[in-house]
């Protein structure tokens, strides 16, 4: 039914302004009477951060910024949903237009700038669904004009820990000036020390809440050394690699749109994001799991993420171009790979090619 619905609406959604199309899609999913997706094959199950994922394919942050449709997305068959980024206070983000589709490149550039309904509204929605099954994480950020960025993260963790399956510290959005400076060694160590402290403080009421760090794919390898060192030192539960890139890979066809300021996602991001994933994997040495995100738009691309070191993957831009068929294709590709290699679970694939990926020439 959903595919039929999609086939009907996609041409229209692709013809209108991308931000209007996104708002419309959310509204349709909110009100569509969705049946539950078929139960997943047991071989797709994944345990990570102390959570049991029915399948390893999730929705990346930014698609459901205000937690309006996490249950609809779970019902469609995603293994988990990361809502947010949420900021403590509501804010509008940057002026429109701020979202651009690079059709010919299958890419997206956005400079939304954390448009968020704010912590109160999002918390109310997550609290209303607490007790329901399904893994829903919250991605948190700081208000653009806040006086104390670190305090923004701390207050948000304290509020959301009781209602979120996990919390992601987003220090990698390129669209909030200065935010990415929090990835610098000393700043990051101070931030994570206080984050973990806050998590422990509320654990008695909230239970154990895994804390993940989402990084930019634009870090240098020396910076990545520092970030992984801090994450390991502060005993983080995992990392997400990664966010959008401010670089513009060579060979983009939509040269005019490529000049727009903002973070690039989708197919052109895949080589860089996957390289950074493998570089992170070899540095983490199995101490915690990684979520691979960036440019997945085929089953083969998803497999590439697992082989480069991901235990879980997330999708965003690929869904814009491929629709929900992408999710089914990825699950089928994972199962086919297991059958081909006679594997009982995805665990054996994770990081199998990480070292090889890090030996390739740097993606341009
Ligand atoms: C329109 C748009 C909005 C996004 N908003 C957020 C956000 O609020 N927080 C965040 O951590 N990442 C955000 N992202 C980044 C995605 O979560 C993801 O890391 C990135 O797009 C790479 O994955 P993809 O190539 O599958 O899109 C956004 C991406 C897009 C395209």
Task: Give a short summary of the structure.
The protein is of the alpha/beta class. Helices cover 41% and strands 15% of the residues. The mean pLDDT is 94.
**Count of β-strands:** 13
Distinct helical segment count:
13
- In angstroms, what separates the terminal alpha carbons? 41 Å
Low-confidence stretches: none
Q: Strand-and-helix sequence, N→C? A: HHEEEHEEEHEHEHEHEHEHEHEHHH
Fraction of residues in helices?
40-55%
Shape annotation? globular
Largest sheet: 8 strands, parallel, barrel
| Rg measurement, Å | 19 Å
Neighbour order of strands in the largest sheet: 3-4-7-8-9-10-12-13
What ligands are attached or bound here?
flavin mononucleotide
- Please identify the structural class as seen in this structure: alpha/beta
Q: What portion of residues belong to β-strands?
A: 15-25%
Instruction: Kindly report the average pLDDT value.
Output: 94
Please tell me about this protein's structure.
This protein is of the alpha/beta class. 41% of the residues lie in helices and 15% in strands. The strands form three sheets. It has an eight-stranded parallel barrel with strand order 3-4-7-8-9-10-12-13, surrounded by five helices. A three-stranded antiparallel sheet has the order 5-6-11, with no helix packed on it. A two-stranded antiparallel sheet has the order 1-2. Flavin mononucleotide binds at residues 60-62, 65, 84-85, 99, 108, 110, 112, 139, 170, 173, 214, 243-244, 265-266, 269, 293-296, 315-318.
